[in-house]
Amino acid sequence: MVRVAVVGATGYTGLECLRLAAAHPEIRVTCVTSRREAGRRLSDYWGFKPYPEDLEILPPEPETIAEKAEVALLCVPHGTAQEMAAELLSRGLRVIDLSADFRLPDPALYESWYETPHRFPHLLSEAVYGLPEIYAPEIRRARLVANPGCYPTAALLPLLPLLEAGLIEAEDLLVDAKSGVSGAGRKGEVALSFCEVHEDFRAYKVASHRHTPEMEVQLSRAAGREVRILFTPHLTPMQRGIFATIYARPRAPEKEIYETLREFYREKPFVEVLPPGRPPRVAEVRGSNLCRIGLKVDARTGCLLLLSVIDNLVKGASGQALQNLNLMCGLPEDLGLPRVPLHP
Ligand SMILES: NC(=O)C1=CN([C@@H]2O[C@H](COP(=O)(O)OP(=O)(O)OC[C@H]3O[C@@H](n4cnc5c(N)ncnc54)[C@H](OP(=O)(O)O)[C@@H]3O)[C@@H](O)[C@H]2O)C=CC1
Ligand SMILES: CC(=O)N[C@@H](CCC(=O)OP(=O)(O)O)C(=O)O
């Protein structure tokens, strides 16, 4: 049994880690933290008791977390994960950070998008980008894994193999993505309340979202040259889910693009490539750790459309974190993780 701490256990990704860990045969959550709920029993707060003994919610103190766990899942806002990661690593824990704190390898790039200097730049170069379909060998050996953002997960899974194989142009890539409201976290904000979100549909952070450089770093690595993308995120009145529609210029026929993606993901347990012309639906991945990819070349314009869906809380966050944990602990990559969606 791997003893795991969920730091920030009362937020959406923390609670999702608890839900998934409860069904995992080799994980035992031994420590849960929250500043506001410290002192309460987890069963009282959450309404469930996954193990015979109850857990007390603790304040997020590195010393205590290190006594109770060997791996920590940091489900806290970016900016706050940095120090916690450094403290836990120095105490011998392995860390999977769900926040954006360790995803950009370059401290100057981090500072320009997050408007504050990174306090542990040496850890930025050590951190492994936690996209298991691409970096599994590095993740197996890592002490610190930077779990990808939800939008980058949805966009990179279709794009990286095609760029790497030279089957799409590296210019004029457009990522138009829609997220469910849980993507914004569990905080109380008027703009995210029911009456504001229900029946609404909005773009936000237009041409300025901080997932843009995260995607560009990975795309540039795959293309072997600097790649720029246009990325527009939208908020849509779903609880969970991301739907990314990606526009690219193909350098090969549709059939070759399809077969290349199929082949790349043939032995990867959580990515499914659908036949050309069959669009995926968010409902097909809700609650599961799957990413489903559809594609079609538009015969009139010659443009390639890639359609990618994930559950932002599972493959976009907590499920991917446990997939990384499996790799880091020498367990089968898919152990204990759901492939079957909550459909409809
Ligand atoms: N929601 C999503 O779909 C995704 C989220 N992420 C990232 O994962 C992280 C967690 O997201 P999410 O669960 O949505 O966030 P929430 O706002 O829902 O939860 C945040 C959690 O962190 C705790 N927390 C907040 N501030 C601090 C602090 N200063 N020190 C220690 N603990 C703190 C909160 O409890 P308390 O305030 O009581 O301490 C709470 O448990 C974020 O970095 C987010 O950007 C990544 C991918 C997808
Ligand atoms: C709908 C919504 O607000 N989504 C969040 C992204 C969630 C995520 O992946 O966040 P991190 O990069 O912080 O981990 C946003 O746009 O900021």
Automatic annotation (TrEMBL):
Q: Which family does it belong to?
A: Belongs to the NAGSA dehydrogenase family. Type 1 subfamily.
Which superkingdom does the taxonomy of this entry point to? Bacteria
| Alphabetic keyword roster | Amino-acid biosynthesis, Arginine biosynthesis, Cytoplasm, NADP, Oxidoreductase
The pathway entry for this protein reads as: Amino-acid biosynthesis; L-arginine biosynthesis; N(2)-acetyl-L-ornithine from L-glutamate: step 3/4
**Reactions catalysed:** N-acetyl-L-glutamate 5-semialdehyde + phosphate + NADP(+) = N-acetyl-L-glutamyl 5-phosphate + NADPH + H(+)
HAMAP family attached here? ArgC_type1
The GO annotation for biological process reads: L-arginine biosynthetic process
Pfam families tied to this protein: Semialdhyde_dh, Semialdhyde_dhC_1
| Organism of derivation | Thermosulfurimonas marina
Ranges for domain Semialdehyde dehydrogenase NAD-binding: 3-142
PROSITE patterns, alphabetically? ARGC (PS01224)
Which residues carry out catalysis?
150
Signal sequence bounds: none
Q: Which GO terms describe its molecular function?
A: N-acetyl-gamma-glutamyl-phosphate reductase activity; NAD binding; NADP+ binding
User: Can you name this protein?
Assistant: N-acetyl-gamma-glutamyl-phosphate reductase
